[in-house]
Amino acid sequence: ALDYVGSNIDIIIGGGSKYFDKRYDGRNLFREFNTKKYNIETKLSGLNRPYPGKTVALVEKDGITGANSKDFLTKASFFAIQSMGGESGGYLLVIDDSKIEEADSLNNTPSLTEEMLDLDKLVSNLAQQAGGETLVLLTGNYECGGLELKNGYIKPKTEPEVSWHSKKPTAALAPVFSKGPGAGQFSGFYSQADIY
Questions:
Q1: How many Cβ atoms sit within 10 Å of the Cβ of residue 9?
Q2: Backbone angles phi, psi at 20, to 5 degrees
Q3: Beta bridge pairs of residue 139
Q4: Which residue would you say has higher pLDDT here, 173 or 11?
Q5: What values do phi and psi take at 47, rounded to 5?
Q6: Long-range contacts of 58-62 (CB under 8 A, 24+ apart)
Q7: What's the pTM value of the predicted model, to 2 decimals?
Q8: d(CA 86, CA 64)
Q9: What is the predicted pLDDT for the residue at 163?
Q10: How many CB atoms lie within 10 A of CB 140?
């Protein structure tokens, strides 16, 4: 949390507010952000309208769970896009769906399915909103769990049969998908850090 206060990031959205206001060292990082002229939002409903200027929106004490997790990625992403829309020279928007990683490490197929459907919805909406002016990149940190299709195919209108091989990261490559201006630059193999 301290790293965020020292950074110059325009918008931070997620959970984990307890690491900002109920800290072991007694510091209230929300106050420190406020001093730096950041808008502070602590409710998910606050993401319904964009704020001018910099914003910290931490809408859960811990991680994003339960009812708040439904469509959270889409709501948070569009809040950021609308808030940053007037930026001249463009901007970099990093979206991390840590719930996919969590489902993988727990080998939780129903949770993974739900998170992947949410991510698919987000990517479809982003591609429509972005039009031809914005580069959209989709990647992951690493592959975890070794999820495998049994029998190598999915029957129409049925849940696929799958098996897991681990609860830890594997050596499988994490893909990068891109759409928009400059998308052709993202091909081949490279470190995830090279994207940034």
A1: 14
A2: -110, -35
A3: 176
A4: 11
A5: -85, 5
A6: 58/12, 58/13, 58/14, 58/15, 58/16, 58/17, 58/20, 59/13, 59/14, 59/15, 59/17, 60/14, 60/15, 60/16, 60/17, 61/15, 61/16, 61/17, 61/18, 62/15, 62/16, 62/18
A7: 0.76
A8: 28
A9: 92
A10: 17
26 contacts 41 by C-beta, under 8 angstroms: no
pLDDT digits (tens, 9 = 90+) for 21-61: 888 898 999 999 999 999 999 888 888 888 888 999 998 88
Which residue's structure tokens are 């928009």? 180
Token reading at 57: 């929106």
What SS3 string covers the chain? CHHHHHCCCCEEEECCCHHHHCCCCCCCHHHHHHHCCCEEECCHHHHHCCCCCCEEEECCCCCCCHHHHCCHHHHHHHHHHHHHCCCCCCCCCCCCCHHHHHHHHHCCHHHHHHHHHHHHHHHHHHHHHHCCCCCEEEECCCCECCCEEHHHCCCCCCCCCEECCCCCECCCCCCEEEECCCHHHCCCCCCHHHHC
Query: Residue 148: beta bridge partners?
Result: 163
> Can you tell me the distance from the alpha carbon of 78 to that of 59, in angstroms, rounded to the nearest whole number?
15
Residue 136: strand pairing partners: 179
Query: What is the Cα–Cα distance from 145 to 9, expressed in whole angstroms?
Result: 32
Can you give the pLDDT at residue 67?
47
pLDDT greater than 70 at residue 89: no
Residue whose entry in the numeric block shows the structure tokens 């609860």 = 167
